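Subject: Protein record for review, amino acid sequence with backbone structure tokens
Category: Structural biology, sequence-to-fold work with a learned token vocabulary.
Format: Residues in single-letter code; tokens as whole numbers, each standing for a residue.
Body of memo: The sequence and its backbone structure tokens, given next.
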Amino acid sequence: MLIRQFTEPDWPQVWEIVRSVVRAADTFPYDPAMTEQQARAIWLEPPPGETVVAVDGDEVLGTAKVGANRPGPGSHVATASFMVAPISRGRGVGTALLRFALSWAKQHGYAGMQFNAVAESNKTAVDLYQRHGFTIVGTVPGAFAHPAHGRVGLHIMYADLTG
């Protein structure tokens, strides 16, 4: 598996991943009826941020975007989002993308990384993030309408990158 910068020919496969993850409505607080145009606008991170893909040959296994969490006085804290193709889950793609994002943020001088909305029901992601140094700094109760579990909390998670 190789993680590299997104290029335009990757979009059809990235769109398939984004569409499947968003339509499942069980991990991301994006509108399940999101159009392809809306997905492009949200997922393709403008510089100085970056969108990447995890590939095996020509197959896109997953994708991530990294950049500043907020502009101005908050721009020293990074954020990232990850999506893995359903068929590629359990193969270390998410872990590889997370490691890439953390390395990218350190290389670009960010003091920390913050995830703004991790569904507490997404145990796989929460556990992965905690294994890589993230802590839950707060939870907004009932902020995510999960299709099977009803309203669950959204965690705000943070990792200090200065140490």
